[in-house]
Amino acid sequence: MTKPVFESYEEFWPYYVAMHSRTATRWVHLTGTLTGLALSAYGLARGRKRYTLALPLVGYGTAWPAHWFIERNNPASFGHPAWSLRGDRQMIRMMLAGRDRELGEIAAKWLADHR
Question: Which positions ≥6 away from 89 have C-beta within 8 Å?
Fold first, then answer.
């Protein structure tokens, strides 16, 4: 599959979700991001600024291997870092709202349309 080109985040979003087509990949992202946020918040509350490094280290440190070993693709952040960060937030919000099935449907549609 050739790497798609996007003109806007709205065009990018279904692709981003498709790169997270497996439920396990999305849940690893959610777990890593929330753990990184919790550690960063703890560090800030305790005056330990180095803990703020937990967000990118734990977040990406769990997410990227999930792409390679579960999803079998490269993280979208390699080509679109800013939109991927926005996509992470949107995906995690949807998951926390109980909309994970909808994410699976978005992924399946994009993959079917682009294979």
Answer: none
Rounded to whole angstroms, how far apart are CA atoms 83 and 100?
20
pLDDT band at 1 (very low <50, low <70, confident <90, very high): low
Summarised one tens digit per residue, pLDDT across range 35-55 is: 999 999 999 999 999 999 999
**Cβ count near 102 (within 10 Å):** 13
Q: Which residue has the tokens 């990406």?
A: 60
User: What percentage of residues in the chain have a pLDDT greater than 90?
Assistant: 90
